[in-house]
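thread from #wetlab-drylab

HS: before we spend reagent money on co-crystallization trials with pyridoxal-5'-phosphate, can we at least see a predicted complex? here's what I'd submit
DV: go for it
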Amino acid sequence: MSDHKLGTKALWAGEAEQLRYGATQVPVVHSVSYNYDDLEEWYQVATGQKEGHIYGRNTNPTTQAFEDKVAALEGAEAATSFSSGMAAISNTLYTFLKPGDKVVSIKDTYGGTNKIFTEFLPRINVDVVFCETEDHDELEKEVLKGCQVVYIETPTNPTLKIIDIERMVKAARKVDALVIIDGTFASPVNQTPLDLGVDLVLHSATKFLGGHSDALGGVVCGDKELIEQVYHYREINGATLNPMGAYLLLRGMKTLHLRIERQNENAMRVAQYLKTLDLVEDVYYPGLEDHPGHDIAKRQMRGFGGVLSFAVKGGLETLHYLLPQMKLAKRAASLGCVQTIIGPPGTTSHVECTPEERAAMGIPEGLVRYSAGIEDVDDLIEDLDQAFKSLPEEIYQKA
Ligand SMILES: *Cc1c(COP(=O)(O)O)cnc(C)c1O
């Protein structure tokens, strides 16, 4: 399987071992426990000397297929899954951090991750240093002062900033820190951070991996030795992915490469269109040549992703008029779905933050995140066009 290209792996990787009775699709195994007539065999499975399943909080055949498929796509030795992306992030951090440790991260992490850093890790006396997201000199300087974990996200949510992964890995190596990256926005089709030396890549599988906004899940990939530690934390603390969720994510992943290709194209075309509008103050998309991270993105990504954001003149007032006019795009939380989704960070990814905190993170109140679906792009542009054209004259005059 490892010689196959990514698209073929999306279809076939992780499945063979779980197919029974000539079934061509992985079954959803709902059983929580597994029978062993032979006590010796039971003991061997329970102690990890033999492959098998004991209890649903630990492992399950359907979730295993999901984990094996993601690991194959990321080029990882192993993967372990979680009930949500946030569970993957928190469990991974808590696996490797203890009182007195230090994390170096960026200001623009996902809103929930930011809350772990500011609210929960300080309770166990873990210090988190937040650097200006695209200030690589500052990041490098902080890492070299010494830390246990370097935690980055690229592209970031919601302004699509780009971090130079190799540069961070190089700095982290000098101080023996683990590099953990949230790769949700890129998906393994566009970016495989383990190839660049990162220790662990994690995803909110709820987004692009599943792709249909019908299942929550998370996953972390890396070397077997690291993944075993994360798995142990999760099996005890219990944030297990359920079998039906695993099946939905597994099924979604069979079209991952096709969806991402189309979403990359659609996002690029929509970004280019938005650039032509007077009422749009800024468009944030790493595929645009004037994006500050474009050159780094070109080096470390195979595609620029399906998410962009844009800021409108007139801020929230303009958005209050604009968003209800959109006919195709759903105004909703989440991203990476086959259908186009739009939403201001103030009500979605960064709802946990105050307006002041959002401003400090460089998120304008007139910002909208646009997650391109797989619709025909002409229709997506037409939808935006009619929405902008239907705005009252006063909005244009004020802007
Ligand atoms: C959605 C998201 C998460 C959290 O994932 P859930 O599945 O909602 O828990 C983490 N990181 C990023 C970048 C996300 O977009």
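DV: The two ends are 56 Å apart (CA to CA).
HS: ok that's useful, forwarding to the group
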